[in-house]
Design brief:
169 residues, 7-stranded mixed beta barrel, 3 helices, 11 strands, globular
């Protein structure tokens, strides 16, 4: 499998997080990247700078949209973790880069609760970094779209991701 690097930056350009996974394939929803248990994630903030993933996951770079999703195998508390981002750009032959816009939307196990996280960080950073109005509008629209999709089990958030997660991570 081909290695693919996912690079997340903040709006001011500073590094945020990066992970290298395995290209699994592409379908109508986008590009699927496997990150098996033990995959190294490098953080550019906080006290933890490098951490290994605890569960098998697949990540989806959507064909269109202002988000990126991670679908994790049990027993991960968050079944689905979505970062609201700018649309992904292919910045190298095996690299995708997004700008993380702070808001995250999660679906939790075992009850399926949908949570919106870091709205306060979005509010702070939209002023601090002067997010343009269209970026704010797209980020809020993506948050609403993700919240609805996760709550109503709209694909790819229902069962489709399991075909990528199960046999190929």
């Amino acid at each position: 499998m081909d290695a693919v690097e996912l690079v997340l930056r903040k709006y001011d350009g500073r590094p945020h997080r990066r992970v290298t996974g395995h290209l699994l394939g592409t379908d109508k929803f986008g590009t699927w990247i496997g990150t098996p248990r033990g995959t190294l994630v490098t953080y550019s903030y906080g006290w933890r700078r490098r951490e290994r993933t605890r569960e098998d996951s697949v990540r989806l770079i959507p064909a269109t949209g202002w988000w990126m999703a991670m679908f994790s195998a049990a027993p991960a508390r968050a079944e689905i973790y979505c970062d609201v981002t700018t649309p992904a750009e292919q910045t190298g032959p095996a690299q995708f880069t997004v700008i993380d816009l702070d808001i995250d939307v999660l679906r939790m196990r075992p009850d399926g609760r949908v949570l919106i996280d870091d709205e306060d960080e979005f509010t702070h950073n939209r002023t601090r970094f002067a997010y343009p109005p269209d970026v704010v509008e797209q980020a809020l629209a993506a948050t609403a779209e993700l919240s609805s999709g996760l709550a109503t089990n709209t694909e790819p958030f229902a069962t489709h991701y399991q075909t990528w997660l199960s046999p190929k991570t």
